[in-house]
Design the sequence.
């Protein structure tokens, strides 16, 4: 798994071209610990977070195949529960997510995916994050 | 829904006492849009995020009752899928989560809960976040 080097590409893409994703380095022992079987449909929730400022952009679901495609392509793939099909974020909208890191939680049944978000944002409404509505708000720890 | 005021409490709690949570201000119209019925078990995933630095601390599940308790107590309540019971974060460990904000996503089937995390952290292992393991890593958007 050598790096891609820093030498200039002899045939650079044209200005404005959409960059390809890059396959991630994978810790195979941890990959085997993702517990897809816990869920009836073999899915785990994937929290997609902006790698730059920490905004939680969206929550979607991955099965083993969607995770495999994500790790291999370097861009997010999900499984749609309603449409029952795989989809790659940004393939129609152009709002692509390039993956920097995939993290697994302590009991293996949830993922955090840190991404560089391209385009307008993550939400199909055009908002940057899907979580743009506030149901409740308070002080957190109250002042003593 | 008046504020609690800023005047000094005539009977302040003793030093080191654990503060109580404070009920959140609730947008009832948005609360009605949380789509618990989409899931067979009436649950939605709740992404718990540190309100101060944006760390995703844990992912757990809420049904309507757990969300109601969270909004009313100002501390996180969840529903355990494996134990089939309600639990309040920190009630045994002391690692309490005081809620600043509950956000709903565009299609109403996921929550982000911004908290002040007290104690060691959110994970039962003693780690600050449950997402302490890296399955895959890469460059994000590759250099041009």
Sequence:
């Amino acid at each position: 798994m050598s790096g891609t080097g820093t030498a200039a590409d002899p045939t650079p893409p044209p200005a404005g071209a959409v960059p390809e994703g890059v396959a991630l380095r994978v810790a195979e022992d941890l990959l085997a610990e993702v517990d897809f079987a816990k869920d009836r449909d073999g899915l785990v929730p994937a929290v997609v977070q902006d790698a730059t400022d920490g905004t939680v952009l969206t929550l979607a679901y991955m099965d083993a195949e969607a995770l495999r495609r994500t790790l291999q392509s370097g861009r997010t793939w999900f499984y749609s529960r309603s449409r029952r099909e795989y989809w790659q974020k940004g393939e129609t909208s152009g709002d692509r997510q390039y993956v920097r890191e995939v993290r697994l939680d302590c009991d293996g049944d949830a993922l955090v995916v840190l991404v560089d978000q391209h385009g307008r944002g993550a939400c199909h409404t055009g908002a940057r994050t899907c979580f743009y509505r506030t149901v409740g708000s308070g002080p957190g720890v109250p002042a003593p």
About this structure: Strands of chain B lie at 25-26, 44-50, 56-62, 77-80, 85-88, 97-104, 111-117, 133-137. The longest strand of chain B covers residues 97-104.
